[in-house]
Amino acid sequence: MNRDQIEGGLRHLRGRGRTALGAVTGRPRQQIDGAVDQVAGALQHGYGRARERADGLHRDGSQFIDEARTRGRALAGDVQDRAEDLRRRGRGYRDEAVRRGRDIVARADDNRGTTLLMVAAAAFATGWLMRRTR
């Protein structure tokens, strides 16, 4: 409960009392002032309830935003970790391919005659397979 709800409730009760007292004593002015206080008290109490509700919604919205921000940061961190892991694995694959390529070049260099024969055989086979048949 906030201040407006308390003050509105008290003003409403005070207005009811004044209205009743005016009715008992036969004073219409006091009855009218009491009725005005009743309405004003009810309005102030309603304003206090609305303000309390708005504060609650604001608080809930702030918590929701904070939670979303926290989850977003955690997700971004996970994505960065995953990206770094993929980069590391990609570098490993690249290094392995370079190493194997160098091994093949070294073997070809050590066995030049065999390499030349294999390249010639591959070229012949390719030419033979791509020839036109009538």
TrEMBL record:
SUPFAM superfamilies: Hypothetical protein YjbJ (SSF69047). It comes from the Bacteria. This is Uncharacterized conserved protein YjbJ, UPF0337 family. It comes from Methylobacterium gossipiicola.
